[in-house]
């Protein structure tokens, strides 16, 4: 079986995980890693027996590389993803994909012009319980969707340095809400602030509104002393709750409480397997660059809403 030659740009905490998974999957071969920190790049390269680079330009001259994961700091993602696309590589770029939507639009255009896959790292979509919720909403197994609430809170992550909680954390739930509802919101109202970390916002409450009147709420922060990752979806006939950490799912209706059993699966491994399959089999990815662009646009609108203290209409 042909293996996909893969490389990773950015070998921090999350980039190391990408490198590990590429080395574990049967359909991929980790070829190289790159990081501006020479020692960090070498440590990861030595761990997986591949070549280390400190320059992505040099690394991308390696013809064995067919696909790239871009896991740099958020403000560097678009630059590195664009470089990879321009050299003919398929790209999985981590969220938030770009610093602003114009950069994201450039990535989409470049990928389309070169016939390349461009996908964004919204790995929540690969959790089995979330897929079950989406199906239940789509097929109205819980009746009409009334509301959904996401809570993604924890202490300050030391790895963060160039974006706030909206583009780093809440953007996951923005994508999840688009995914389960099958719709784009028409408006956003948000309150954000900095309680402990002055450079960027460290808490956010975001409300998304939809054409049919339903609302969705997202709470994210870096100030809570414990880590919680929960999604609650309220339908007219039942309520579904998902713990992203344990992947446990609960369903409550008027007659009974159920807890379907899904074997725990590593979302990143499912995501990178899907990325490799799409490239090798020329299939459309579940998450496209358009999904990344739309999530980023909503995140920008949330920040604008908070700054202007008013609701923002979305096109």
List keywords for this structure.
315 residues; alpha/beta; Rossmann fold; Dihydrodipicolinate Reductase, domain 2; 2 domains; 6-stranded parallel beta sheet; 9 helices
Topology:
Blueprint lengths: L3 E6 L3 H12 L3 E7 L3 H11 L2 E3 L2 H4 L7 E4 L6 H10 L3 E4 L7 H13 L4 E3 L7 H11 L6 E11 L9 H17 L5 E7 L9 E7 L5 E7 L1 E13 L2 E6 L5 E5 L3 E2 L8 H15 L7 H20 L3 E2 L2
Parallel strand pairs: 1-2, 1-4, 2-3, 4-5, 5-6, 7-10
Antiparallel strand pairs: 7-11, 8-9, 8-15, 9-10, 11-12, 12-13, 13-14
Helix pairs in contact: 4-5, 5-9, 6-7, 7-9
Q: What order do the helices and strands follow?
A: EHEHEHEHEHEHEHEEEEEEEHHE
Shape: globular
Q: In total, how many domains does the architecture comprise? A: 2
Distance between the termini: 45 Å
Record field, number of beta strands: 15
User: What is the CATH fold-level name of the largest domain?
Assistant: Dihydrodipicolinate Reductase, domain 2
Using only CA atoms, what is the Rg? 20 Å
CATH superfamily of the largest domain: Dihydrodipicolinate Reductase, domain 2
| CATH class wording of the largest domain | Alpha Beta
Poorly predicted segments: none
Structural class: alpha/beta
How large is the count of helical segments?
9
- Order of strands side by side in the largest beta sheet? 14-13-12-11-7-10-9-8-15
CATH 2nd-level architecture of the largest domain: 2-Layer Sandwich
What share of the residues does DSSP label as strand, in percent?
25-35%
Q: Percent helix among the residues?
A: 25-40%
Summarize model confidence as the mean pLDDT: 96
Task: Tell me the major beta sheet.
Answer: 9 strands, mixed
